[in-house]
Structures are given as structure tokens and as C-alpha cells.
Specification:
Helix content is 30%, strand content 31%. The protein has 337 residues and is α+β, with helices and mostly antiparallel strands. The chain has two domains: 146 residues, Rossmann fold; 171 residues, Tumour Suppressor Smad4 (Sandwich), CATH 2.60.200.40. Strand 3, helix 6 and strand 4 form a beta-alpha-beta unit. The radius of gyration is 20 Å and the shape is globular.
Length: 337
């Protein structure tokens, strides 16, 4: 049985949630949302400009059905500086973009106490996949009018000397983090799936697994030893590899996945197992769920959050990830039964 746990003191956006600002609309369901205007934010470069086109299409459909929305472009600055004030008094938030845009908006939606919808316009769109959300404007408006509120967990990454990192889907250390950082440092403009090919090749050629010591709720579950490590709030992952297939976003727990890896060939073998969906049965796989996960590294290593470099920290030697239960909400597709 998966048990819900509380969290410790928070800072930044998490502190605002703790001070009781996350309330109101989340408990009133779609009725509250339908009576108030919806803020629609879009990343103008997502999907090579498709986000901007989707925002216009959504505006047209919403107007035709009498749903009040307001469009606003996302900003590269901290979300609290450009999103917090516009969210006040709204009924819901629609995010048009990729998973990075969802991550930027999730904590602010939680603070405002309003549900979120992801209208996918990125590469993987893992959050939208988790909840069956699509880029169909009719479907988005249907959720706004009749959707069911579902409460979800967030996670926060704690690195000494840096502000907390908001984690919606997952964080990891190892090969995929190297790929994410390589792409971020070399990209010029919008990225697509092909953009990852060269970063993946370069990262594979120079791959050296970090030496990891993993602790879940105060108990050592792995190491120290070389491994690729993931802390997941969601089962979804790029290319449907889905290492944490038991993860649930509303169970009050995080899932730790540890794949012992001595070098490139071990990594390739794990990738094959992931593709075939057979990794969970492998005797060397480490898998544990808990409320607090601490990763200690022999040497500073890069980490990634929801498919992007972290906002505040790059290479780390120690990172703790804590669950924040029932931190925000989404509007699920209206039930038909």
C-alpha cells in the first residue's frame, strides 16, 4: 500500500503554498472555473510557432462557446514575476507549450488555487500524455466547462545554496541529464526530436556513470556505486521508455529508480530493457517509493528536471527531493458514465 506523507518547511513558491494561499477554486470544481475567466499562456517558440497558432484557435472556439479567456505569452524570467499577478481572480490556467512551460506554471497555479490544463505544443508533452490532454481547442474548452478537478502532488528539489527547484514529472542524474545539458548549451532556436541525436551521441561517447548513494526516507537503498538514477512523480518519460512505471501523481510518494551501470554497454542494455518494458523485473534494478529521497554523489554531476536543465543549479554533489502532496490540480476530461 502506498501511504501519503507530509513535507517539511518550504521556501519560495512552496512557502506560499504552505501559508495557505492554495485554496478556493480547487475545491469548487468546474462550476467555479466556468464562472471566471481563464488565463491562457503560450510559449511563442514551442513547436516552431505552433503554440501561437493554437492560442488563436482556442480563443476563437472559446468565444463561440461563451467561455472568457485571456491570452498571454510566457516570459523567460521567474514565473512569480510575470505570472502570479495575472492569475489572481482566474478560474483556470491553460498552458500551451511543452513540459517546460507546465513546470514554470505549476507552482503559480497552485498558489492561485486554480486547476491547470496542458494544451501540448512541445516535443514529448509528457504531462498532457499523463492526463489524455490534446491540442484540440474543442476538447480544451470542454474541460474548462465540464472538467473534473483532480488534485496532484508536486516535488521540490533541494540543493544547498540554491533556491528550491519545482519538479512536476521527474528529475534524474546520468546519461539523460548529460543529453539535456548538451542540447541546452548548443541549441539555436526551437528544438525537435532530431535535435537530440547529436547530443545523445556525444553524451554516449563520453559517458561515465556517476557514483551514487541513494537514501529513501532515511534508509539506504543503493550504493555507493555507479548508476543512472531517476526520482519520478509521474510514470511518463521520453520516447515512452517510462522507467518509473509504478509512479502515480496523486499518491503522496515519489518513485526512485536506480539502474546500476558500469559503462556504455550497461547503459545500452538498460535502454533495450526499457524499450521492451522488461526493466522492472531485472534483479539489479533498484526501485523504491518514499516521501523523501536523497542522492549523494562522489563527484559533482549534472541533473535535469522535467527534460530541461534546472533553473538554479547545474552540477550537484547532494540533492534531496521531497514530495508536496495535493499541491496543485488539473481539469480532467468530463466523465460520461
Amino acid at each position: 500500500m502506498r501511504t501519503c506523507y507530509g513535507t517539511h518547511g518550504r521556501s519560495g513558491a512552496f512557502g506560499a503554498m504552505r501559508r495557505g494561499r492554495y485554496q478556493g477554486a480547487r475545491d469548487l470544481g468546474w462550476i467555479f472555473s466556468s464562472l471566471m475567466s481563464t488565463l491562457v499562456i503560450f510559449n511563442p517558440i514551442s513547436g516552431a510557432g505552433s503554440a501561437k497558432r493554437l492560442s488563436a484557435a482556442l480563443s476563437s472556439v472559446a468565444a463561440a462557446q461563451g467561455v472568457e479567456i485571456e491570452l498571454m505569452e510566457t516570459s523567460p524570467g521567474p514565473p512569480e514575476t510575470w505570472l502570479r499577478e495575472p492569475l489572481q481572480g482566474r478560474g483556470a490556467l491553460v498552458v500551451i507549450g511543452g513540459d517546460g512551460a507546465v513546470r514554470s506554471a505549476a507552482a503559480e497555479a497552485a498558489i492561485a488555487g486554480i486547476p491547470l490544463i496542458h494544451m501540448p505544443a512541445g516535443n514529448e508533452n509528457l504531462f498532457a500524455r499523463e492526463f489524455g490532454m490534446t491540442a484540440d481547442p474543442e476538447e480544451v474548452v470542454r474541460r474548462l466547462r465540464f472538467g473534473q478537478v483532480r488534485h496532484l502532488d508536486l516535488a521540490r528539489g533541494l540543493v544547498e545554496g540554491s533556491p528550491d527547484e519545482v519538479i512536476v514529472l521527474m528529475a534524474s542524474i546520468g546519461f539523460d541529464a548529460d543529453v539535456v545539458h548538451d542540447l541546452a548549451s548548443n541549441r539555436r532556436g526551437p528544438a525537435n526530436h532530431l535535435s537530440y541525436v547529436l547530443p545523445a551521441i556525444r553524451s554516449l561517447l563520453r559517458f561515465k556513470p556517476p557514483v551514487v548513494h541513494a537514501i529513501v526516507d532515511g534508509e539506504t537503498v543503493f550504493g555507493p556505486g555507479p548508476a543512472v538514477v531517476m526520482v519520478a512523480n509521474s510514470r511518463q518519460y521520453a520516447a515512452r521508455l517510462d522507467p518509473a512505471r509504478r509512479a502515480e501523481m496523486d499518491d503522496g510518494l515519489l518513485d526512485l529508480v536506480v539502474m546500476p551501470t558500469r559503462g556504455r554497454w550497461d547503459l545500452v542494455r538498460w535502454l533495450v530493457r526499457l524499450r521492451r518494458g522488461r526493466h522492472l523485473d531485472h534483479p539489479k534494478l533498484g526501485y523504491r517509493a518514499g516521501a523523501s529521497i536523497r542522492i549523494q554523489l562522489e563527484h559533482s554531476s549534472l541533473w535535469q528536471v522535467d527534460g530541461d536543465p534546472p533553473h538554479h543549479s547545474q552540477a550537484v554533489k547532494v540533492i534531496s527531493v521531497e514530495v508536496v502532496p495535493n499541491a496543485f490540480s488539473v481539469l480532467e476530461h468530463p466523465r460520461t458514465d
